[in-house]
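User: I'm putting together notes for a lab meeting next week and I want to include a structural view of one of the chains we've been expressing. I don't have a solved structure, so I'd like a prediction I can at least talk through. The sequence is below, exactly as it appears in our construct file.
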Amino acid sequence: MIVARTRTSLHEARATLPGPVGVVPTMGALHEGHLALLRAARRRDRSVVATLFVNRTQFNDSSDYAAYPRDEAADLAAFQACGVDLVFAPSIEEMYPDGFGTRIDPGPIGADLEGARRPGHFSGVATVVAKLFNLTRPTRAYLGQKDWQQTRVIARLVEDLNLPVKLVIVPTVRAHDGLALSSRNVRLSPDQRRAATALWRGLELAASAWDDDERSPAALADLVRVTVQAQPLATIGYAEVRHALTLEQVAVADPPLVIAVAAEVGGVGLIDNVVIGEGLMEDGSL
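Assistant: Thanks for the context. Below is the predicted structure for the 286-residue chain, given as structure tokens.
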């Protein structure tokens, strides 16, 4: 496994990789959710590139950036175990040298939901992803369902800027209690973690109601909201039912659909979702 820390060394190493090439962008603190992406890339692509960079431009809260867990040695060992061929692990200065001033505005799809909760977040995401795709030149990029709005922002970016990469969305990986795996989960105390499972329990109730023919977006969202609000340690951010691809509000809860929730538990921001519809994940055409 090659570890490149500069754009020059990345370019040289990337030139030696046979295609097709899959890339898995990460900020490190790897867990089974990340490993699922790496394994999916290993199954489909001849070469696998992973990126390891905590992107400060997508953090609207400097304390959240400072608290983000980092363990490069463990991350590199996990990449090695998953058969990654090349890791790009640049410094901040390598990604954002003096004089860097360009930022990408993803438009309306990044302005609502997480975009409203975290101003500037998706501009930072879109900018760094565009740079990483240009630098690694992948055939496919692997993204996780848990960050559903992020997948839609990146899909918009790829389409609008004519980037030659296909996106593969891999389903959320969950702990035994249903909590969606996240690098931030390590910051939860045992009591906070128990409270955090309310996000998934609310989504399960909403998905079950949809299976029973409930088609009111407000009713489905309320099931999630009430479940989360019943936890004293949890503060609801939003519970919304949206069109899965455009993230626009819907009058009737028909597929393709995403039921999304965000909450803060013990000062830790958490998100989760259920996606309803065919062909929305593990599909290289997205």
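A couple of points you could mention at the meeting. Residues 121-136 form the longest helix (16 residues). Strands lie at 2-4, 21-26, 47-52, 86-88, 140-144, 166-170, 234-243, 257-265, 268-276.

User: Perfect, that's what I needed.
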